[in-house]
C-alpha cells in the first residue's frame, strides 16, 4: 500500500490532491477538499438513525441551501445494525447538488485534517467498488478515498 507524500518527493504539482480525512466506525476515509464546502457538528442523530433510506436520511438548511443528509455509516456498514455513532457526529457538506438543487451532506463520526496526497501513490480498489477511487496508507492505517462524483452521479 502507498503512503502519503510530503512535498519533498518527485511528484509534480498536478499529481498532488488535497483530501479531507474522516472516520466511520473503525475505518478511515477521505474525499477531495475541493468537493467540500463546510463541516458542521451534529449533536442528535436519532432521526437519521431511524430514517428508512440512508441515502436520504433527512435534510437541514445551511446558509440558505437545503442539504440532504446521507448516512455513510449505514451505507458502508452492516445493514442489520443500528450504527454505533461517536458522541458528536459531523456533517461534511459537499458542493455537489442533487436534481432538486439540494446539496449532499455526509454524516460521519469524526473529521480529521486535510492532507496533500500524490495520486501516483493511490492503490486501486481491490474489488469492484464503484464509490472507491482507491486507498493510501497513513500512520499504518488504510485511508479509503471515496469518489463523491460516483456516489452522487
How would you describe the overall organization of this protein?
The chain has 153 residues and is mainly beta. It has three helices and eleven strands; from the N terminus they run βββαββαββββββα. The strands form two sheets. It has a six-stranded mixed sheet with strand order 8-1-2-11-10-9. The radius of gyration is 16 Å and the shape is globular. Residues 1-9 have low confidence and may be disordered.
List keywords for this structure.
single chain; 153 residues; mainly beta; SH3 type barrels; six-stranded mixed sheet; five-stranded mixed sheet; 3 helices; 47% strand; CheW-lke_dom; CheW; CheW-like_dom_sf; CheW domain-containing protein
Tell me the strand percentage band.
over 45%
Helix content: under 10%
* Lateral arrangement of strands in the main beta sheet: 8-1-2-11-10-9
- Secondary-structure content class: mainly beta
CATH topology: SH3 type barrels
Number of strands: 11
Specify the CATH homologous superfamily. SH3 Domains
Encode the helix/strand succession as letters. Answer: EEEHEEHEEEEEEH
In DSSP terms (H or I, runs of 4 or more residues), the helix count works out at: 3
Mean of pLDDT:
81
Ends: how far apart? 28 Å
Level-2 CATH architecture? Roll
Number of domains: 1
Envelope shape = globular
Q: What is the radius of gyration?
A: 16 Å
CATH class value: Mainly Beta
Query: What composes the largest sheet?
Result: 6 strands, mixed
Low-confidence runs of at least 5 consecutive residues: 1-9
Protein name: CheW domain-containing protein
InterPro entries: CheW, CheW-like_dom_sf, CheW-lke_dom
